């Protein structure tokens, strides 16, 4: 009997582990891209940022669903008298009508208004913005989704990716939030990083300034200018692409430190590495564009 109980316990543990959600890098990229927008929405409408993010991830498959790709619809909101553009997809029934948006920002904004103005969701706004479990269960009880495990799925996402930390945020990155206003999601978002008071991403094979500009909502001409290149330049996989004008020197923690030139590097590639405008890297080192660098040479960064 003891052996049977032990085997049953192992089986139950295995089934539980199989049902647990696993960390996904694509989900994390989506969260990094939209967390500031979710916080902005929380400040405006008192909807927990964790709930908005978890719903966005779950409903859109982290921006990869057909609805997100074709209609920038991140929350699976159906037409319900919608007067704007629409897309059709199979859901509870075949070929159902869903709202479509020009960009992700519009989808997030409409999701907030949908909850705020919906009579059935009114009780949720008596809950604290840190009560993500109450919100998740309330959304399910109010009929937001038909999936019987909807609340559990949202809670699992929130806890796995620690989304509840954003419910306590006092500030958010306005640049990242506003950058989504012109972004048309294609399901293949680039991770965006922050360095030297700037933002950057790394080019993938086939990227152009135009394709990146469309994703991040910045003119491709400006992108090329920020990166001190021609707008039609061919980007190589791994190239750093800054989203704002670069600084005059490296961050403060590089004071007194040198960069020692490695094989294959140029003044331009070093300037990109540290987010410095090329002409200022020359100035910092009392050099001119006519000067050459050699392997092992030490360069000042600020």
Helix count equals 12
Write down the oligomeric state.
single chain
Helix coverage percent: 40-55%
Shape: elongated
Largest sheet: 3 strands, antiparallel
Uncertain runs: 12-18
Helix/strand order, N-terminal first: HHHHEEHHHHEEHHEEHHE
Structural class: mainly alpha
Give the SSE layout.
Elements lengths: L1 H18 L5 H21 L3 H12 L5 H6 L14 E4 L6 E4 L4 H14 L14 H10 L8 H11 L13 H6 L13 E3 L2 E5 L6 H8 L3 H7 L13 E3 L15 E3 L6 H8 L3 H7 L13 E3 L2
Antiparallel strand pairs: 1-2, 3-4, 4-5, 6-7
Structural commentary:
42% of the residues lie in helices and 8% in strands. The chain is built from 12 helices and 7 strands. The chain has helices at 2-19, 25-45, 49-60, 66-71, 104-117, 132-141, 150-160, 174-179, 209-216, 220-226, 267-274, 278-284; strands spanning 86-89, 96-99, 193-195, 198-202, 240-242, 258-260, 298-300. The termini are far apart.
């Amino acid at each position: 009997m003891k052996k049977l109980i032990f085997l049953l316990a192992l089986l139950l543990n295995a089934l539980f582990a199989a049902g647990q959600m696993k960390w996904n890098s694509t989900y994390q990229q989506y969260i990094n891209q939209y967390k500031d927008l979710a916080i902005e929405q929380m400040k405006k409408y008192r909807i927990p940022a964790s709930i908005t993010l978890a719903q966005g991830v779950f409903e859109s498959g982290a921006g990869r669903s057909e609805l997100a790709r074709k209609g920038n619809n991140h929350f699976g909101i159906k037409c319900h008298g919608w007067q704007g553009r629409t897309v059709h997809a199979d859901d509870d029934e075949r070929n159902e009508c869903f709202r479509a948006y020009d960009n992700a920002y519009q989808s997030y904004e409409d999701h907030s208004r949908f909850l705020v103005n919906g009579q059935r969701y009114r009780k949720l706004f008596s809950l604290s913005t840190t009560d993500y479990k109450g919100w998740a269960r309330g959304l399910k009880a109010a009929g937001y989704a038909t999936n019987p495990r909807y609340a559990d799925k949202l809670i699992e996402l929130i806890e796995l990716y620690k989304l509840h930390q954003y419910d306590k945020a006092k500030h958010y990155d306005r640049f990242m939030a506003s950058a989504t206003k012109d972004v048309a999601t294609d399901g293949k978002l680039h991770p965006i990083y922050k360095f030297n008071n700037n933002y950057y991403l790394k080019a993938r094979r086939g990227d152009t300034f135009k394709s990146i500009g469309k994703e991040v909502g910045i003119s491709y001409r400006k992108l090329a200018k920020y990166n001190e290149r021609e707008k039609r330049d061919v980007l190589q996989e791994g190239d750093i692409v800054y989203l704002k004008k670069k600084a005059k020197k490296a961050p403060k923690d590089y004071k007194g430190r040198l960069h020692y030139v490695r094989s294959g590097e140029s003044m331009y590639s070093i300037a990109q590495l540290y987010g410095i405008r090329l002409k200022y890297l020359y100035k910092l080192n009392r050099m001119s564009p006519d000067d050459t660098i050699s392997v092992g040479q030490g360069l000042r960064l600020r």
